[in-house]
Amino acid sequence: DARPPVLRATILILIVCAARMMGRRALSFNSLAAAAIVVLLWSPAELFQTGTQLSFLAVATLACCGPLLVPKEPDDPLKRLIVQSRPWPLRVLLNIAGWFWRLWLTSALIWLVALPLVMYRFHLFSPVAVLLNPLLWIPIAVALFSGFGVLILGWLPPAGAICGWICGTSLTCIESLIEWGQGLSGGYLWAPGPPLWFVLAFYAGLALCIAFPKFRPPRRWCVAALTLSLAVALGASYPNSSWSPSSNNQQLACTFLAVGHGTSVVVELPDGRTLLYDAGSMGPPAVPARSIAGFLWSRGITHVDAVVISHADADHYNALPELLERVSAGVVYVSPLMFDSSTPALEKLRESIESAGVPIVEVWSGDRLQAGDSVHIELLHPPRRGVIGSDNANSIVLQIDYDGRRILLPGDLETPGLEDVLAEAPLDSDVAMAPHHGSARSNPQGFAAWSTPEFVIISGGHGRNLDAVKAAFRNAGAEVFHTEEDGAVRVTITPNALTVKSWRHNPWPP
Q1: Taking the CA atoms of the chain, what radius of gyration do you get in angstroms?
Q2: How far apart are CA 495 and CA 340, in angstroms?
Q3: In 3D, which of 419, 400, 43, 116 has the Cα closest to residue 253?
Q4: Burial level of 240, CB count in 10 A (0-12/13-18/19+)?
Q5: Averaged pLDDT for residues 422-429
C-alpha cells in the first residue's frame, strides 16, 4: 500500500541498481535524501509519523556507521597470512562470532540512536531490546524469504506448503521471543519521556556531526557524548516532584480527561499530591490508559497518591490495570460493594492492584480522604451497606472543597441512590460532573436544582443526543462542557479565583 518504509526501501534499491548499471557510486545519504523527497511528495503528512521517522533514522544510522559494520581484511600482509594459516574450524568459528558481533552492534547502534524518539513518542525504555534484536533478526529473515517463497511457489502445493510452514514457524518463534523478553524483570520500563527540546537538540547534534566530519571528535568522545546524552534523556524523563506543575501550594487543579464514553478525573492538590477519580472507557483499555498516563507525565506526575473507583462498571476502571504499569499508586479506594459480584474484569482489576503492591481500602459516606489542611474531601454516598439497585446507584459521590469553592464528582449515580443524595440538604457547588455521562435517567433537573452548579462537565463520548440534558443544566444557570466536543476540561481554583478551560477551544499551557 505504498507505506513510507516500503517506498523508502524501493527507492533506495532502484537508486543502487541504477548506479550499478551506469558504473557510478550510490552515495548513502544522497540516496536517502532522494527517498525522503519522494515520500514527502507522495504524502507530506508522513513527515510527522513516528514510523516514517524511525524508518529513515535506522537507515541513516546504518549509512553513518557502515565502516564499523562491514568486515575488512587486515591491511598488514603478515596479519592476513596469520588469518589464512589458522585451522578451518577456527576460521569458521571466528567468522560466525564476528557475524554475531556485527549483528549485535548494528542492533545496538540503531537502538541507541532511536531511543530518545522512542521514549518521547511511546514513553518506553526497553533495554531488553539490545538482547532481543540480534535473536529476532534470524527468524525475521527466514520469515521474509519463506513468505516470498509462498508468493512465488504457492501454485506448487508441496513447495508452497513447506514455505508456508517455515514462515509460520518463524513468526511463532518471533512472538515467543518477544513474550519471553516482555516477561523479563526490568526488561522494559514506562517513562514520561524526555522533553521535546532535548529530542530536537539530540538529533540536531547528530546531524551536525554527520554533515561536518572534519569537526567530529574522536570515536571515544562520540561514544561518551552519546552515552551521556542518553543518560540525560532518561534522567529528564523523571522530573523532580518539586519541578512538577502540580506542586503549586496555592492552586487546586481538577482535569476531566476526554476518554470517550467513560470517566477519568485528575485532581492535583495544593500540597503536590494527586488523586485520580476513575480510570476507564468503553472499548480497548489501552486507549484510555495511554491518554491518562500521557496527561500525568505531561504534568510531571509519575506517582498517584490515591485512586478512587466510583463503582464496578468497566468504563470507570478498565484502564487501571495497564495504567499501574506506567505510574505507581499509593492506595485504591473502593466502596464496600465494589467486588460483591465476581466477573473476569473485576478479578483482573483486583489482581493487577495487588500485584502492583497497592492496598485496597473500602470507604463509604461520611469518610474523609487525606488532602492536606486546606482541602476537604468527603464521601457523600454510598452508605456502608449500600442501597438496593444497580452498581450505578451505589457510585461513590465525592465532594472536594477548597478556598470556598466546591467540586462534585457523582460517578454514574442514578435511582435509587440519586434520591438518597437529593434527599439531603441542598449542596451549593461551583463545578459538578453530570451523573452517568449526562444520562437523562440521572434526573438532570433535580440534580441541578439540588447542587446549583455554575459549571457542569459531561464526561462522555459521541452517539448520544444530550441536547435535552444540556438544556436542563443551562436553564439552571450552568455553563455546560462536554469532553467529546470540548476535549479535556481543566478547572483551576486559586485564592479568590476559579477558571474553567477546555483544551479544544481554550487550551491551557502544558
Answers
A1: 29
A2: 42
A3: 400
A4: exposed
A5: 92
* φ, ψ at 8 (rounded to 5°): -60, -45
Cβ–Cβ < 8 Å for 300, 245 = yes
3-state class (DSSP) for residue 139:
helix
Mean pLDDT of 424-439: 94
Residue position matching grid coordinates 462537565? 457
Residue 237 CB partners (closer than 8 Å, separation 6+): 119, 125, 191, 192, 193, 194
Cell numbers at 467, concatenated:
441536547
The torsion angles phi and psi of 198, rounded to 5 degrees, stand at -70, -40
Asked if residue 48 has pLDDT above 90, the reply is no
Helix (H) or strand (E) holding 341: none
Residue type, 100: F
Categorize the per-residue pLDDT at 236 as very low, low, confident or very high, splitting at 50, 70 and 90.
low
8 A C-beta contact, residue 473 and residue 434: yes
Roughly how many angstroms between the first and final C-alpha of the chain, as a whole number? 37
Decide if pLDDT at 509 tops 90.
no
- Measured in residues, the chain has a length of 510
Element holding 205 (H helix, E strand): helix 196-211
In the predicted structure, residue 276 carries a pLDDT above the cut 60? yes
In three-state secondary structure terms, 103 is: helix
Partners of 378 in the beta sheet? 368, 399
pLDDT, one tens digit per residue, over 374-397 is 899 999 999 999 888 888 999 999
CA distance 97 to 103: 10
| Strand ranges (E), 57-195 | 124-125, 189-190
Report the candidate in 168, 176, 94 with the shortest Cα–Cα distance to residue 136: 176
C-alpha cell at 223: 561514544
Distance of CA 95 to the CA centre of its chain: 42
Confidence of residue 242 (pLDDT cuts 50, 70, 90): very low
> Could you tell me the three cell numbers for 403?
478556598
Total-model pTM: 0.78
